[in-house]
């Protein structure tokens, strides 16, 4: 019988549930206690393990160890960044039988908002196990290569700068939008070289597997997390007012349908900030980037 066998008791699809969380996050203790209480009452035969993280990146190590044994349900009690670590930990184990889900408990919960909303206990008892796509991001060409997975999006230019501005500017929609406006003054265009040798100059480039990101922006109306494709949202270098208008459109009416592809490759001509599921990193000049849709790569409820 497989994890989705209809003749199997719902909770028995998993041999245990493992909650991965940052114990230092405000309110986390109460959240974990409540989740334990719900699971104990509604799925009493399901073993529940707690795995608190000790440092940045620890969730990936923990998820890798869990995913290597049995058929666990790994619950990331976190925002997008923590869930990204868990997803990459599972992807580190070829052929893993792990199933993942996220309980929103972070500053950015874009992935959670883009999936069907369902309480954890209901998902454990009744939710189907389904396969969703991931973005497989390869940095470098030849050896050594770095491979990273994103559950939601990877952005270059404006997107990571918006994330930095939001994080430093205070919480709440008005404060965050003001922070984004201030961030625009620090934006510098970046140049990419495509595989055919053509160059393009951008203020922003987003490759998205979900419809909503950056908390309030709707980047596409056509995206599906399991269609083997992802959306490409570009803003060629232009005046600052055009960037402002694009940002306002994203946070109000949305950007509408966007072109979709199964892979996208380029080389950075300039150093450029990059954001993967809410976590910012900086790419040096001359970095080759290949983004591919890893169709059905992750089992989720």
List the helices and strands and how they pair.
Blueprint (H helix, E strand, L loop, with lengths): L15 E6 L6 H15 L5 E5 L5 H10 L4 E7 L1 H12 L7 E6 L5 H5 L5 H7 L3 E10 L6 E5 L2 E5 H12 L3 H12 L5 E5 L4 E10 L3 E2 L3 E2 L11 E7 L3 H13 L7 E2 L1 E6 L3 E5 L2 E5 L4 E13 L1
Parallel strand pairs: 1-2, 1-3, 3-4
Antiparallel strand pairs: 5-6, 5-17, 7-9, 7-15, 8-9, 8-14, 9-12, 10-11, 12-13, 14-17, 15-16
Helix pairs in contact: 2-3, 6-7
Task: Give descriptors for this structure.
301 residues; alpha+beta
Describe what this molecule looks like in 3D:
The chain has 301 residues and is α+β, with helices and mostly antiparallel strands. It is 29% helix and 34% strand. It has eight helices and 17 strands. The strands form three sheets. Strands 5, 6, 7, 8, 9, 12, 13, 14, 15, 16 and 17 form an eleven-stranded antiparallel beta sheet that branches. Strands 2-1-3-4 form a four-stranded parallel beta sheet, sandwiched between helices. The protein has a two-stranded antiparallel sheet with strand order 10-11. The two termini are 18 Å apart.
Which outline best applies?
A: elongated
Please give the count of helices: 8
Distance between the termini: 18 Å
* Radius of gyration over all CA atoms, rounded: 20 Å
Largest sheet: 11 strands, antiparallel
Structural class: alpha+beta
Helix-strand string: EHEHEHEHHEEEHHEEEEEHEEEEE
Quick structural gist:
The protein is α+β, with helices and mostly antiparallel strands and 301 residues long. It is built from eight helices and 17 strands. Strand 15 and strand 16 (279-283) form a beta hairpin.
